[in-house]
From TrEMBL:
Name the UniProt record assigns to this protein: ROK family protein
Domain HTH arsR-type, residue spans: 51-78
Short name of any one Pfam family annotated for the protein: HTH_5
InterPro entries associated with the record: ArsR-like_HTH (IPR011991), ATPase_NBD (IPR043129), HTH_ArsR_DNA-bd_dom (IPR001845), ROK (IPR000600), WH-like_DNA-bd_sf (IPR036388), WH_DNA-bd_sf (IPR036390)
GO function terms (MF aspect): DNA-binding transcription factor activity
Transmembrane segments: none
Signal peptide region: none
Family note: Belongs to the ROK (NagC/XylR) family.
Organism: Marvinbryantia formatexigens DSM 14469
Length: 399
């Protein structure tokens, strides 16, 4: 698993130089060894130098060199000594989870959520701030002040920060530099330049549904092929194939919210009529003036109006789920802050509605509830920076 140098080498005829020598240098191998040592400690905390050397099949002096580098970089630390019946007890090593952090922001119309993740993708800190959205540079001025206030409150140093992701209700360019479609917040064409200018780390926009699916993939690494439905105030989605998010040719894959569900139905914010957004979003379920938590509490108490709306909502949601399953016969994950409020009985009711609608009377256990129950957008906005750090650790650490 860790020592896969063999795949770097090529078959060659007698008398010829191996192709690898023209491509990979000793520095490349050194970088890979450093990365392997770090990743072994990452997945096997409180391990010894000898266990690292045995697992990676590299020499103790080589391991010692890389441990020294990682200790100097303050990426790992000694964690006491391992128990031993005989002889000298070996030092145990583990990574420092908050040696680096990533910040994710969920941008909504009247508030923002700011979350910090450590290198295990675990939530270190979270704050909610009131901030009325307006797509101009003055908004960025206010937002950067909140980020710096957040950093100061939790005593994060600038050198700890890997990057800042801004989860937004809109489609974004591949590089995350601008919003390509932002009807909900009226921010199409908005550039991240002014905000990024306040920081010395990468900053990028991410579609909120992409953020939520990032969070789910992190919590559910065994997921291979699935459709992710992000059910929040608004509806969103993502297609996952081979454990990777599929964005499509122009980044519009998974925009299930704009599939036509009811011909000539309600008017969607996109200007068309009958979109799934109008019938499967939290806005439709709870209605104006009622928080989702209040709606589900009333439903559980037997409120007639809430029960009637819940049945109507399930009818449309089951229609959407069945349609999606006809296109891709994969797991369908119900995520987002509204779906996180579904009880086991609610999930069972949705499955029953889908089964009733299904042509093939399928086993509807393919419909599952997401594991990431809260802060999925702000967490998912930060996760790409964690993943990039883990991928590039051998390159970024001092050699």
């Amino acid at each position: 698993m860790y020592n896969d140098f063999s795949k770097w080498f090529c078959e060659y005829d007698t008398g010829e130089e191996p192709a690898i020598m023209n491509t990979f240098s000793l520095t490349d191998i050194k970088k890979k060894n450093l990365s392997d040592v770090y990743h072994f400690i990452y997945y096997h905390p409180d391990c010894s130098k000898q266990s690292i050397a045995n697992a990676l099949e590299i020499s103790l002096p080589t391991v010692s060199q890389h441990l020294s580098t990682l200790l100097e970089e303050r990426l790992i630390e000694k964690a006491g000594q391992l128990a031993s019946a005989v002889g000298r007890r070996a030092a145990a090593y583990r990574i420092i989870p908050d040696a680096r952090i990533a910040v994710g922001i969920e941008i909504l119309d009247k508030k923002v959520y700011i979350t910090a993740l450590n290198l295990y993708g675990k939530k270190e800190a979270k704050e909610r701030y009131s901030l009325v959205f307006h797509a101009d540079d003055l908004y960025f001025d206010d937002l950067q002040k909140l980020v710096k206030e957040f950093m100061q409150k939790y005593r994060y140093r600038e050198e700890q920060l890997l990057g800042i992701g801004l989860g937004i209700q809109g489609l974004t360019s591949p590089d995350g530099a601008r919003v390509t479609y932002g009807k909900i917040l009226d921010c199409t064409g908005w550039s991240i330049g002014r905000f990024a200018g306040y920081f010395r780390v990468p900053c990028r926009f991410l579609h909120d549904a992409e953020c939520a699916s990032n969070s789910e993939l992190w919590e559910n690494p065994q997921i291979s092929d699935a459709i992710y439905l992000s059910i929040g105030q608004h509806l969103g989605g993502a297609v996952i194939l081979g454990g990777e998010l599929q964005k499509g040719l122009t980044g519009k894959s998974g925009t299930f919210e704009h599939m036509s569900l009811v011909p000539d139905g309600r008017t969607c914010y996109c200007g068309r009529k009958g979109c799934a957004e109008c019938y499967c979003s939290g806005e439709f379920l709870a209605g104006p003036g009622m928080e989702p938590e209040e709606f589900f509490a009333k439903k559980e108490q037997g409120d007639a109006a809430c029960l009637e709306r819940w049945e109507e909502y399930r009818r449309y949601l089951s229609m959407l789920i069945n349609n999606l399953h006809m296109v891709m016969e994969n797991t369908i994950i119900l995520g987002g802050n509204i779906a996180s409020l579904f009880s086991e009985e609610d999930i069972a009711a949705v499955r029953a509605d889908v089964l009733q609608r299904s042509t093939f009377l399928d086993d509807v256990s393919y419909i599952i509830q997401g594991k990431c129950r809260s802060d999925a957008v702000s967490i998912g906005a930060a996760l790409p920076f964690i993943k990039e750090f883990l991928r590039d650790i051998g390159t970024e650490a001092a050699m």
